[in-house]
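Good morning C.,

I know you're traveling, so I'll keep this short. The sequence:
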Amino acid sequence: MESAYKAHTGKPKIKVGILLNSYKVSYPYYHILETLIHSDYAELSLVVLNKTRAGLKRRVSISKLIEHFNLLFFFAYQIIDQKLFKPRYPIMKQKDCRELLKGIPVIETTPETKKFFQWIDKDDIQKINSYNCDLFIRMGFRILRGDILRIARYGIWSFHHADNKVNRGGPPCFWEMYEKNPVTGTIVQVLSSDLDNGKVLYKTYGATHKFSLNVSRNGVYAKAMFFIPRLISKLHHEGPGFLNETPQLPEFYSHPLYLAPTNLQTIKFVWRLLTSSFTKFIRQFFYRNQWFLMYSLSKTGKIQPSMRKLKKMIPPKGTFWADPHVIFRDGYYYIFLEEKFFNRKNAHISVIKMDEEGNYGSAQKVLELPYHLSYPFVFSHQNCDYMIPESGANKTIELYKCESFPDKWKLHKVLMQDVQTVDTTLHFHNGKWWMFVNKVEHPAVSNNDELHIYHAVSPEGPWEPHRLNPVISDVRRARPAGKIFEYNGKFYRPSQDCSVTYGYGIRINEIITLNEAEYHEKETDFIEPLWDDKINGVHTFIFEKNLTLIDGVRKVSKWS
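The tokens, ready to paste straight into the viewer:
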């Protein structure tokens, strides 16, 4: 895992305690433990083991079914869902961490248990306190109450796999699907006596999977396994100041306390899944998505605000055009784009030449490689033209230099390798180059969720990570959607909203602060595909010398 926070020589590590039910933990927890053990900023100082949990697991299954009779359908649904929907990169398997934690002191405790709550007795509290841990990570136990909540300087850190402003309780990721919420949140909180209302240290949003609880959970848990190491690294590097940042007002909570769904609720939910799945199958059988371009030319240098007034550029049959980027030269717009033939696996980069009256020719192929290419970010620097196409399929960020404009490009330098990134976008600001790119640290994590920034004195690098990476962790506004542009003296970053579906909408964000220590942006507008019922999404916005240019997606017949 990349970390922008490096340990300072002589600075004591953060002493971390772990709360476990057993030595068998899910892979995300195992990954957290492994990361902290091998880090230069944290020291695992104590394991607190819940001895009651094993006894709970040995309860007679029939009695449990009787006790939870009204939840039988939900239990059955989860089993079937796990069989039918298998994530490409499953991460929820159990791993034994006994060897990993070898040599770390262990305190076994039998907490007092009342329904969902647990209290650790005073003698064990004294033993735990003697290890002087800075913080604890909750990977087990039930809802904790009592002195254990106050025993560590920075408290007990715990995940809640939901947005605590919307969903408190559980089960994880279900109610977002049930209520058709396009996003599922995850928080890291400091536990308090009020359920899921502790100080929030980290919050993120990812797209809710529409058809599988198992797949939705897999993605949510995979992304979350990087949050706590990031936070502890930041704590070690910067000190506790950021932990004390509190809002002036509490975050009001007006939703019900969620519990596991009843049999009736589960039946309603599964029926909706079945009908939605059938509808999706029919649509995919008869139709496919075709991306195309829409544009407007202005004589006044203004952006065209009315999407209805954009003219369509429809690609040839069997083809789509997407991800447009523009260089204006000698009275012509050169529109570089992703071009893909439906009958081929990979896309290539092509260019369309358009004059200032809106007349344009056919697409000309300019770059094709053995792997998929898209999002051809083009720019000029020191009288040379460059292109950074998305080459995520090759796990690289590649810089191409133009040998003969606009159709001859040669690989100039590999800026990064062995990285999973999409939609690299450069911006020159205050004497530095800034790279905006969505990046993931595990293949099970969606590449739509987290925006990273890097900076360098030259487009060729070397590129240094921003200290706040990821600067945005939100599927609704993280992923770049085109070149950062200047308008009326301000800079704006277009971003994709991939919550409803991939490439649903475009958010326009004003960049307020950009330097090595800070990044802040403010959303100023949101483009949704509402003006034409035949358009299902938009995901790139370009403004370049009087030209407003976006792409859109529509359904076209597979059989015509």
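Safe travels,
E.
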